[in-house]
Design goal:
Elements: H1 7-18, H2 25-53, E1 78-87, E2 94-102, H3 124-129, H4 137-148, H5 156-174, E3 183-193, E4 202-211, E5 216-223, H6 229-241, E6 249-252, H7 256-265, E7 270-273, H8 275-283, H9 288-301, H10 316-333, H11 338-345, H12 362-365, H13 372-382, H14 391-406, H15 416-429, H16 443-449
Parallel strand pairs: 3-6, 6-7
Antiparallel strand pairs: 1-2, 3-4, 4-5
Length: 450
């Protein structure tokens, strides 16, 4: 390890590298869990050393502060590298760099490394805590005490320093300016987590999207007490107030509060009903014996690569063709599964809006499950602690997971034809008073933009 790179910086670099490859997201998150445990432990022990010596890494002793009596607060001594220490966790063994000191007048003993640390599996709490970016000092102290034993508790100043640094990162993200963010597609979804003792799980609202350059972006995250119109309206209004302009297409499930709020805040945008959520609604009202056949028939309605539809360009003609298939599907099963087909017919028009957009984007914009696997990973991890210490810890945890995961999300291909289709839709939806472009599209320029 380079002497100029701190162990903390090295761990952060390892986490960043994980999302640059083509590995499955679930596998990546397992490694992030282990690195997250390393990061929180490494940050805490380095903070202990700073407090013990009275100065930060590379800070000269002469430049440190003095106390009220004018006495230097820095101790004699200096850092002398690190030695590896392996700790067992339920996410697997992790190795941290244990600091070594030289020239001190008293021995440095880390309170983090208790006698039971290297032989306990209770450190799953720390794996979770490595993602939590908003826990109070007492919350972190209790989490560490549960995992490491009371003899390994950290000082309040150390815990406070760690929590403050990582909480600031989340606060800055949730207040950032969005005026430079131009989205073609905006995905909205919510997942429920237990935040308060004795209360039911509450929703965390999430927004992510695809920019006009085809790049994925994690746009917003916040907690709410319900998925009501008011809750979603407040969430989306905050994004708009910070500069987010209307997207071309909003993709979501069928929650009435979400739909109503999206139509109020972004009235010019089209709305796509998540086909996966719709299928779940249909299958929930279908007998087990018929579910496989109904599922196959459902997806066959949206297959545009067959002989009948493959030559139809994205647009209203394609929408009408698929709507006729849906009608036939409903007619076929109405007698056998009437409740399921009533669910299929509800808000049916919103199932085919995506067909007006570039064909190469269809399979990814017809549902809002883009983020569900990551939500699932988050829920699996928090089962260990049952519930969060509060709203801030919950939202901070989810943000930390999604923020890292979003760096590995795949973008959209923007071909010249796709760019032209999106340009025409943008002009029709967002700039209806703008006259059509009479100059031919420069294909070379579009290729370069893609």
């Amino acid at each position: 390890m380079s002497r100029r790179v701190s162990p903390i910086e090295a761990i952060r670099a390892e986490i960043d590298v994980l999302f640059t490859g083509d590995r499955d997201l679930a596998e990546v998150l397992e490694d992030v869990a282990r690195l997250g445990a390393r990061l929180i432990i490494q940050t805490a022990v380095e903070a202990e050393v700073d407090a013990f010596l009275g100065r930060a890494r590379y800070q000269r002793r002469a430049a440190t502060a003095v106390d009220a009596d004018g006495q230097a607060t820095a101790r004699p001594g200096h850092r002398n590298g690190h030695c590896p220490t392996t700790i067992k966790t339920t996410a697997g063994p992790v190795t941290v760099a244990r600091p070594k000191l030289r020239g001190t007048t008293e021995k440095f003993a880390s309170r983090l490394f208790g006698t039971h640390v290297t032989r306990t599996n209770a450190l799953e709490t720390l794996v979770i805590a490595s993602f939590v970016r908003g826990m109070s000092v007492r919350d972190v102290e209790n989490a560490l005490a549960d995992a490491l034993g009371p003899e390994a508790a950290l000082s309040k100043s150390t815990v406070s320093a760690v929590c403050t640094a990582i909480r600031d990162e989340f606060d800055a993200w949730r207040r950032r300016d969005l005026s430079g963010l131009k989205l073609d597609y905006l995905f909205l979804d919510a997942s429920h987590f237990k935040m308060h003792n004795g209360h039911a799980a509450e929703p965390v609202l999430a927004a992510w999207g695809i920019t006009t350059d085809g790049k994925p972006v994690f746009a917003g995250l916040d907690n709410a007490n319900s998925e009501s119109t008011d809750a979603w309206h407040g969430f989306l209004t905050d994004l708009a107030d910070r500069g987010l302009v209307s997207p071309l297409l909003v993709i979501s499930d069928g929650a009435k509060g979400l739909i109503s709020a999206a139509e109020q805040v972004f009235p010019k945008a089209l709305r796509q009903r998540c086909t996966i959520h719709k299928l779940r609604n249909v299958l929930a009202k279908t007998s087990k014996d018929d579910q496989d056949t109904v599922r196959a028939g459902f997806w066959a309605c949206f297959d545009t690569n067959n002989e009948q539809l493959k030559d139809i360009e994205p647009g209203q003609r394609l929408v009408e063709a698929v709507q006729r298939r849906i009608d036939a599907f409903i007619d076929k099963w109405a007698g056998t599964c009437p409740a399921a087909m009533r669910a299929m017919a509800t808000d049916r028009a919103s199932l085919t809006v995506y067909l007006r957009f570039p064909a190469e984007h269809h399979k990814r914009i017809r549902h809002s499950n883009f983020i569900e696997r990551t939500f699932g990973e988050t829920r699996r991890r928090v089962k260990v602690i049952g519930r969060f210490p509060g709203e801030t810890s919950c939202v901070s945890l989810i943000w930390a997971v999604l923020d890292r995961a979003s760096r590995g999300w795949r973008g959209f291909t923007m071909t010249p034809r796709a760019l032209r289709t999106l340009q025409d839709l943008r002009r029709a939806l967002l700039e209806p008073s703008t006259p059509p472009c009479k100059t031919p599209v420069d294909a070379a320029a579009l290729e370069q933009a893609a």
